[in-house]
Amino acid sequence: MAKKLWYAPIDACYITQGFGENPQYYKKYGMPGHNGTDFRTRFFPGQNINSYNKAILKEYGYSWLGKREIYSVADGVIEQARYDRNGYGTHIRLRLKTGELVIYGHLQSILVKKGAIVAGGVRIALSDNTGDSTAPHLHFEVRPTTGNAANYYGAVDPMPYLKECINPENGEIMTWEGNQTVKLSKCSKCCGLHCNN
After folding, report:
1. pLDDT bucket at 102, cuts 50 / 70 / 90
2. What are the DSSP calls for 60-85, one per residue?
3. What are phi and psi of 162, to 5 degrees?
4. pTM confidence score
5. Which of 22, 125, 130, 169 is deepest in the core (most CB within 10 A)?
6. Between the CA of residue 99 and those of 140, 143, 151, what are the distances in Å?
7. Are 19 and 31 in contact (CB under 8 A)?
């Protein structure tokens, strides 16, 4: 039986920080590097957007705020939905039916409550810049049920889980090319800023 694909946690086109990067910064947390993958929020209030990008936004129907919606990657239960002023800021911990713990960090708004049962592809939050964060983005972290990842508090590189995933907005398959761009199969509404369509 083939492994069921996860939904993309955000309609992301660009990774701003990969797993294990910037070890000097994460020493304060007792880790050898970054414990997740950071997806840039496409557009946010106050960002300097040039006229070319404004034209693309208008052509493809994106609002000035852009796409900030965060989605559940698979079926599961919300274990935590709260704020802490350090680290993750406003964040969600989702326990998947398959056992993995998925953490979504630096959120603005949480749209689910602790204990809620959610299906894959459901909007659960809006991204922002809360906690230990330097710019609006989604911190996405996966802690599997097995394996030895103690140096990262149980986290592993999430990108193998998202190698192929489902776009929660249109159901199309997304595939990653390298570490920084995404290609949407049969995409008809691409923003054109970082994608290879």
Report:
1. very high
2. HT--TT---EEE-SSSEEEEEEEE-S
3. -110, 10
4. 0.80
5. 125
6. 16, 9, 20
7. no
Q: What is the pLDDT of residues 12-55, one digit of tens each?
A: 567 888 999 999 999 998 899 999 999 877 554 444 455 555 55
Residues composing the chain: 197
Question: Do residues 76 and 96 lie in contact, with contact meaning Cβ atoms separated by under 8 Å?
Answer: yes
Given pLDDT bands bounded at 50, 70 and 90, which one contains residue 196? very low
Report CA-CA distances (Å) from 52 to 45, 74, 135, 141. Answer: 17, 36, 22, 33
**Residue ranges covered by each domain of the chain:** 6-184
Q: Is the pLDDT of residue 2 over 60?
A: no
Q: How many helices (H) and strands (E) does the chain have?
A: 2, 14
Would you state the pLDDT for residue 58? 55
CA 197 to CA 190: how far, in whole Å? 8
Residue 84 class from Cβ within 10 Å (0-12 exposed, 13-18 middle, 19+ buried)? middle
Class level of CATH domain 6-184 = mainly beta
Nearest Cα residue to 8 out of 64, 66, 72, 57: 72
Tell me, what's the pLDDT at 136?
A: 82
Q: Which two tokens stand for residue 165?
A: 């995933």
Q: Is 58 helix (H, G, I), strand (E, B) or coil?
A: helix
Burial class (CB in 10 A: 0-12, 13-18, 19+), 195: middle
